[in-house]
Amino acid sequence: MTGGGATPERAAAEWFILLREDPDDAALRVRFDAWLAAEAAHAAAWADMDETARIIATAPPERRTYEVPGPGDGLPWRRGGPQGAANPRRRRVMAAAAAVIALVLIARPMIALRLAADHISGVGQVETVMLADGSTVELGPDSAIAIDYGQGGRRVRLLAGQAMFEVRPDPARPFRVTAGDVTTTVLGTGFDVRMIGDETSVAVRHGRVRVEGAAGASELGAGDWVRIGPDVAMASGVEAPELVGGWRSGKVAVRNRPIAEAIAEIRPWYHGEIVLADRALGAMPVTGTYDFRDPARSLNLIVSPYGGRVVRITPWLMIVTAA
Questions:
Q1: What is the pTM of this model?
Q2: Is the dihedral of CA 301, 307, 311, 317 positive or negative?
Q3: Tens of pLDDT along 237-264?
Q4: pLDDT digit string (tens) for 104-161?
Q5: How many CB atoms lie within 10 A of CB 84?
Q6: Among 127, 123, 148, which Cα is nearest to 139's?
C-alpha cells in the first residue's frame, strides 16, 4: 500500500481517495491505521490532508473538488501490493471515478453559464464578438457575456472570465459593463474587464471610464487600472496602456503576485481543473512572462523555483503540490 518511496504527503493523498472510495473496507482501515501510526510524519501529512479536504468542502461549488494521488509510480495500483496491479478492476473503478469527478466539476457550472450567456468562448480561445452598434468585444478564454441593448442604453454583463471592449461612441445610449458588483460606464474608450479568481479588475487602454462598486467610484484614463478583491477593497495603479488586454495573445506578464493568483489566470486556458493543494506554496510571489496557451509548462515554470511540482491525474485534472 502507499509507501514504496512515496512522500508522506503523497501517501496521505492516496489514502484519502482510497478511504473515500471504500469507507467500509475494514482491512483497508487496518492498513491505514498502521501507516498512520508508523511515523510522526505520516500523522502530520494526514492532518494536512484532512485540513485541505475541509477547506475544499467549504469552497464555492465551482471550485470544489477533493485531493487525488499522484500519477505514475506514485499510484498504489501501479506499484503492486494489496491494492496493486493484481486488482485491475479497482484500477478501472478509481480511474473512472477520477474522470467522473473531473467531468462533473467542469460541467456543472458550465451548464448554468450557457443558460445565461449570449456569447461564450472555449477554453484556451480568444473570440471577437461584433455587437449591434459596431462595438467589439474580444472575449478571453473560458469567458461569457450577456448583452442587453435597450432604449435606455447598452449594457453588457461579464458572466465569467475576461473581455476587452472597443466601444463605438453614442452619447444618447450609454455603454455599461457589469462584472459582479462592479459597473464600468464608458465615456468613449477601449478597456479591459476581468473576473479572475476572487478579483474583478478594470484597465483602460485608451479613453476614459467610470468604475463604480461597493468599494467606491473611480474615473480611469489610459493606463489606469483598479482591482477589487474579495474584501471589496479597491487597489489602483498605472501601467503602459499598450499592455492592457495583453492576455489576448496568450502571453501574460505576472509581476510580484501570489502563485495562487497566477494559477487563477491559467485556469481559463486549461481544459480541466487545476487544484492548488498547498496554501503556503500559493502565497509565494512570482514574477515573469508566461505563455498560458501551454498551461502545464507555465505551471511548472511558476512553481518549480519553490520546489513545487505539477501532477497530472487525468487529461482534465492537474494537482499543484509542494515538493
A1: 0.61
A2: negative
A3: 998 998 898 899 888 888 899 999 999 9
A4: 455 545 666 777 889 999 888 999 999 999 999 999 998 999 999 987 789 999 999 9
A5: 17
A6: 127
Rounded CA separation 146/163 (Å): 12
Question: How many residues appear in the chain?
Answer: 323
Query: Which is nearest to 286 in space by CA: 322, 252, 259?
Result: 259
3-state per-residue secondary structure call for the chain:
CCCCCCCHHHHHHHHHHHHHHCCCCHHHHHHHHHHHHHCHHHHHHHHHHHHHHHHHHCCCHHHCCCCCCCCHHHCHHHHCCCCCCCCHHHHHHHHHHHHHHHHHHHHHHHHHHHHHCCEECCCCCCEEEECCCCCEEEECCCCEEEEEEECCEEEEEEEEEEEEEECCCCCCCCEEEEECCEEEEEEEEEEEEEEECCEEEEEEEEEEEEEEECCEEEEECCCEEEEECCCCCEEEEECCHHHCCHHHHCEEEEEEEEHHHHHHHHHHHCCCEEEECCHHHHCCEEEEEEECCCHHHHHHHHHHHHCCEEEEEECCEEEEECC
> Pairing relation of β-strands 153-166 and 175-179?
parallel
* The one-letter amino acid at 280: A
Residues 206, 167: Cα–Cα separation, whole Å: 11
Q: How far apart are CA 244 and CA 225, in angstroms?
A: 9
Contact 116, 123 (CB under 8 A): no
Residue 106 corresponds to which cell in the numbers above? Answer: 467542469
Neighbours of 112 (CB within 10 A): 11
Is the sign of the CA dihedral 242, 250, 213, 287 positive or negative? negative
**How far is it, in rounded angstroms, from Cα 13 to Cα 15?**
5
Residue 172, C-beta contacts closer than 8 angstroms, at least 6 positions apart: none
Taking the C-alpha atoms of residue 129 and residue 119, their distance in angstroms, rounded to an integer, is 8
Is the CB of residue 112 less than 8 Å from the CB of residue 160? no
